[in-house]
Amino acid sequence: MKGESGIKKGKLGENIRELGILIAFIVIIAFLMALSPDAFARPSNLINIVKQASINGILACGMMLVIISGGIDLSVGSTAALAGVMAAHFSHPGEYPLFVPIVIALIIGAAVGVVNGIGVAYGEIPPFIITLGTMTAVRGVSLIASGGAPVFNVSKPFEYVASGFLFGIPLLAVYFLIIVLISAFILTRTVFGRRVYTIGGNETAAKVSGINVRKMKIMVYTYAGMLAGFAGMLLASRTVSGSPTAGSGYELDAIAAVIIGGISMAGGAGKWYGTVIGALMIAVIGNGLDILGVSSHYQLIIKGAIIVFAVLIDIKSKSRNV
Amino acid sequence: MKTRKVLSIVLVLLMMTAILAACGGGAKEEPAAQEPKEFAFFISHMTNAFTIELSDAVKAKAAELGVNVTVNDGGKDAAKQISQIETTVNQGIDGIIIEPVSVDAIIPAVKAATEAGIPVVIVNQQISDPSAASAYVGVANKDGGALEMTKAVEDLGGKGNVAILLGPMGSDAQIGRSEGYKAVIDANPGVTVVFESTANWTTDEALKLVENWLQSGKEINAIVAQNDGMALGALKAVEDAKLQDKIKVYGLDATPDALAAVKEGRLAATVSQSTTTQGLEAMNTVYKLAMGETVEPELLVDFTLITSENVDEFL
Amino acid sequence: MQYVLEMTGIDKSFSGVKVLDQVDLRVKPGEVHALMGENGAGKSTLMKILMGIYKADAGHIVLNGHETHISGPRDAIAQKISMIHQELNPVLDMEVSENIFIGREIRKKGLGKVGLVDRAAMRAETASLFDAMGIDIKPEEIVRRLSVAQIQLVEIVKAISLSAGIIIMDEPTSAITDREVEVLFRQIRQLKEQGVAIIYISHKIDEIFQIADSITVLRDGRLVGTDERRNFDRNRLITMMVGREISEVYPKGEATIGEPIMEVRNMNRGRRVRDVSFILREGEVLGIAGLVGAGRSELMESIFGMAPGSRGEVAVKGRNIRIRHPKDAIRTKIAMITEDRKRTGLNLKASVEHNITIVSIDKLAKFGFIDQSREGKVSEDYIGRLGIRTNSRKTMVQTLSGGNQQKVVLAKWLLTEPDIIIFDEPTRGIDVGAKRDIYLLIGELARQGKGIIVISSEMPEVMGISDRILVMCEGRITGELMRSEFTQEAIMGFASAMGGAGA
Fold first, then answer.
1. Cα dihedral A143, A148, A150, A155 sign
2. B106 vs C252, more confident
3. Which of B205, B215, B260 is nearest residue A44 as measured by Cβ atoms?
4. Does the residue C338 lie in any domain?
5. C341 assigned to some structural domain
């Protein structure tokens, strides 16, 4: 749409979406504070929330890049489980130095990511399908690798990785923050990030503009995979066990965080801070409802409703622009 | 074009014949005048220490008796377990043991098996129509729950706030153990339940739940979890909040890690459902039935409370 | 009832652009009425209105003396109008007889509307239709197995079998051989005897002169004239189709043409590009003319690395280059402004600024980090240079007009400082003012010593701005004209050189 009014409408539409999510977030917090005045707003609880948002938030950062590039990754939950199992295997007291399980988790995550990337880029398999396949296969590998039961008995230093503090801030939050900053930086300031947006925006035009779309896709999925590996290691550290069934459904929470945050499922658009708000929102709701004693089943209904609402806002704001 | 059509019809006919043959052929085994040799064990899932221990025990007893047992993993899916049972029944087997995914859904499959002359032993979780099967070997989950809660109440001196972590809602274990809890709590008016929610047997859900409960401002004196996986998650949350001296945690299953935690004095108690004994007895019972002997319709194995006092016997 | 069809005063606009302006068309029963005009003249749009696919903004349609409204394709068929489309759309996985009877399947008697399909009857009917026309295709053959020529014949038979009063044939012979064209013409003559009117759209002037009774010429959405065929000769026809004064619309200055800057040898890609070789010189504007489907865009895509199955040699400034991906071409300082800016030229989800800088983004960055102030300066610079009308460089490019969007694409490529620029239909969908800007720009770039290739389907345009024209037809270069030799007839002649001869 040309002309003054056309431009104005466009700007308003975009701003509404970003602003809307923030407003919704604030409203939800206010609501929960009112319902549990003593418990909810306490500093220790707020720290709790950030801790609980961290693992999903880390997964969401990887998912965000994948979705912006026009794809999706359903395998991150399974990858996290496999990484957690293998990390736990290598973190029994006195066996290996601490960096070993961490590096192994990252390598496993990257490996799964590479498989996904190659499938999408060279096999031209739709991302939904290939990551559905890896999600299933990797879950099987975790069950085999763990012998079916969680791997317990991890060392104290390993436990500390996710449970410790840095100047009073939980380490989980520190990792989340660092990864958010890295992901944000990549998306907004680097050539790589610009190309990710372009591929998601118009893949053919990206190719014509000289972008090596295949290589980029592999890198994006590898990034998401590595973050899933990292998150899996953190989960194992946090629960002091590497469980083969851990992380199931985590990919959906990661996708939910990204969608609630306003990243378009079609790719090519969206701001990184939306994802952060999305991850925090999910944790806030879970925390608030747990404190109120609301059963986890109702929580699922509420989460689902919020996701649908967020997508509706996304669709509405898009149709205004066209 | 025509050849393709003819070929496809032929293929379909061949397939149908094969299926019919398999169906028909399977059921018509000669009546067992011979030694029973082949058994099948249907387990609800194979993803925690409990199920692994159970399965190992069944296999060990089978080896001892000199028979074969095939273990079928139901993957927590009732429909899958039903098809597994039906397929096996069709192919013919000397006896089956089932640790059910759902205590209601598998009853038709159980009936089909007994009607085909195959003895069925249910283990660990009783189905809702016990007469459909040949025998039950297991525990009364109610007793286990009661045992666990009794210890917790004792430690509280009969007064205090308790938070409860449940298994998946509607599962036999959850229902039974909750019944046991309720009986003890009702008998002790000084004890109040402040939180009660499901963490689906998993450590990370329990961890997050308890973390949030600890923030609620409500005082909690004891956390009773329906299995060890959740108990350990709760324990981690309590220790992270440095409240381990104020809150005692109780579990059930006697998994190796829980036992270790009891020995270290971190977990107040756990309960053994004598998983191994259940497995051994289940295999034994189905063998006897296959040999034509009669057995008790119900064989209950005892729960044992494990605390720091007796933990060494179990390690 | 002199006319079987009278369309009068037809107007049609799309998104504010007028594509038909007070067009009249009158067709007599039993006549073959040819509808002629360049690409974009409005012929297809007019026919789609007749078929009910579009609705006219103004005007009347009178069938057999009665004014009617045609609500959609089914209604058109019910009113005895059928059409053979230019783009063939059969149901590939059904058999020929099913395609012929699609939507009006013959049912087994006795079961009424709910009945079973009587495949035998459809096949028999189809077979007799084919026999009558001397066509050798099995009615039970699956359409996916047929050649394009055979599919076209099936479409022809389908339209004819609909016992229509008016049959529209849009480029019906684009894929078939001379022999089959004869079959078609025989059928057409038969239909004429039955009083069926045929509206015939084709670029093949020879065919028109063979078969048409009357000719109507459209140009730029307007009616130029209608007359009987015997009052036309080739010159008059072409002049009416094309005739514009060229010089004022196309500013062209002196050209200094230098050494060869790019040489293409034996470029091949399946049937679309056949053994093409040519040279492009510094400072030259090389026009590529031809009909839609001649293979011009395909040739450029092959050169630019967009088409993996291509074989051939490309040399730039004397050195052989392997171009397997656009980034290879870009590195060799070739730029490509594609035919469809919305589909392949722009990222509609991004801003003007981001679109301008995307190809050169690594040059605006240090160690992979974008220098955002440099990026801003550069994009502002080009916005000014090309006169791109936008609120700000951060505006979403989707909101710009077609002309300004095209300028953004130009800016993107000019930023790479290319030596060779390929323009594919650079002024498609753009108003006159912006067109002129682009012509001036092309001239300026040529003066800077760059080699420019322009693909254009608008004859006046390609004649106006080129120094030399290559004409393509069915994947080959069929003619080359220097500026002094430019005539519409010559170009059209080369473009339709293979009129009728298919495989």
1. negative
2. B106
3. B215
4. no
5. no
Comparing CB atoms, the residue among C327, C346, C361 nearest residue A205 is C346
Nearest residue in chain A measured CA to CA from B202:
A246
What distance in Å separates the CA atoms of residue B294 and residue B181, rounded to the nearest whole number? 35
Q: What are the tens digits of pLDDT across the range C62-77?
A: 998 899 999 888 888 8
Question: What are A165's strand-pairing partners?
Answer: A170
Cα torsion B191, B195, B199, B203: sign: negative
Chains in contact with chain A (at least 3 beta-carbon pairs closer than 8 A):
B, C
What pLDDT, on the 0 to 100 scale, is given for residue B166? 94
CB atoms within 10 A of CB A23: 11
Read off the pLDDT of each residue in C205-231 and give the average, rounded to a whole number: 89
- Structure confidence by residue, pLDDT tens digits, C245-273: 444 456 777 778 889 999 999 999 988 89
| Cβ–Cβ below 8 Å for A206 and C347 | yes
Give the pLDDT confidence of C336-394 residue by residue, as tens digits.
999 888 889 999 999 999 999 999 999 999 999 999 999 999 999 999 998 888 889 99
Q: How many domains does chain C have?
A: 3
**Candidates B198, B200, B207; nearest CB to A238:** B207
Q: Tell me what the mean pLDDT of segment B28-50 comes to.
A: 75
Q: Does residue C257 form part of some domain?
A: yes
Domain ranges of chain B: 35-139+275-301, 141-272
For the residues A3-19, what does the mean pLDDT come to? 48
Which tokens belong to C437? 């800007």
> Which two tokens mark B51?
């199920």
pLDDT for the residue numbered C499: 44
Residue C422 has a pLDDT of 96
Which pLDDT belongs to residue A14?
Answer: 55
Asked if pLDDT for residue C406 goes beyond 70, the answer is: yes
| Chain A contact probe: residue of B197, B204, B267, B315 with most A CBs at under 10 A | B204
Quick one: C425 and C465 in the same domain? yes
pLDDT tens profile A186-244: 999 999 999 999 999 999 999 999 999 999 999 999 999 999 999 999 999 999 889 99
DSSP of chain B, one letter per residue?
A: -HHHHHHHHHHHHHHHHHHHHHHHHHH-PPPS-S---EEEEEES---SHHHHHHHHHHHHHHHHHT-EEEEEE-TT-HHHHHHHHHHHHHH--SEEEE--S-TTTTHHHHHHHHHTT--EEEESS--S-GGGSSEEEE--HHHHHHHHHHHHHHHHTT-EEEEEEE-STT-HHHHHHHHHHHHHHHT-TTEEEEEEEE-TT-HHHHHHHHHHHHTSS----EEEESSHHHHHHHHHHHHHTT-TTT-EEE-SS--HHHHHHHHTTSS-BEEE--HHHHHHHHHHHHHHHHTT----SEEEPPPEEE-TTTHHHH-
Structural domain containing residue C128: 5-242
Chain B hits for A48, CB-CB cut-off 8 Å, are 211-212, 215
Q: Could you give the 3-state DSSP secondary structure of residue C115?
A: coil
Q: Which of A52, A245, A295 sits opposite B47 (nearest CB)?
A: A245
User: In this predicted structure, what is the pLDDT of residue B227?
Assistant: 93
Residue of A nearest to C356 (CA): A209
* Fold (CATH) for B35-139+275-301: Rossmann fold (3.40.50)
Residue of B nearest to A234 (CA): B204
Interface with chain A: mutation pick from B43, B45, B215, highest number of A CBs within 10 Å: B215
Q: What is the mean pLDDT of residues A247-274?
A: 91
How far does B196 lie from chain A, in Å, by closest CA? 8
By CA distance, what is A163's nearest residue in B?
B240
The CATH number of domain B141-272, selected from 3.40.50.150, 3.30.70.260, 3.40.50.2300, 3.40.50.1110: 3.40.50.2300
Lookup result for tokens 């708000």: A277
Instruction: Identify which of B98, B121, B93 has the alpha carbon closest to the alpha carbon of residue B32.
Output: B93
